[in-house]
Write a structure and sequence with these properties.
Length: 79
């Protein structure tokens, strides 16, 4: 929530990888043979949406995560 308005999504992911190398945020790693591709894709979708939420709602305001998700103009609702 703190850095979304100052940092690109790519930079945020790179920063997390620097702190936790080899973790599930490494979206360039091929995990299909490990059966974790769906988990990684779900995680990427969640992180992408939460990043957009944080950019639009600094410090969690004016909308809560659930309110934002329920809004028909939210990216998750536009698919």
């Amino acid at each position: 929530l703190k850095n979304a308005h100052q940092m690109s999504f790519h930079d945020l992911i790179e920063r997390q990888l620097a702190f936790n190398p080899g973790r599930a945020l490494d979206f360039n790693k091929d995990v299909t043979h490990e059966g974790r591709a769906n988990l990684r894709n779900d995680r990427l979708e969640f992180i992408s949406l939460f990043y957009e939420y944080a950019k639009q709602n600094p410090k969690g305001a004016p909308h809560s995560w659930s309110e934002w998700l329920a809004d028909p103009t939210t990216p998750s609702q536009q698919r």
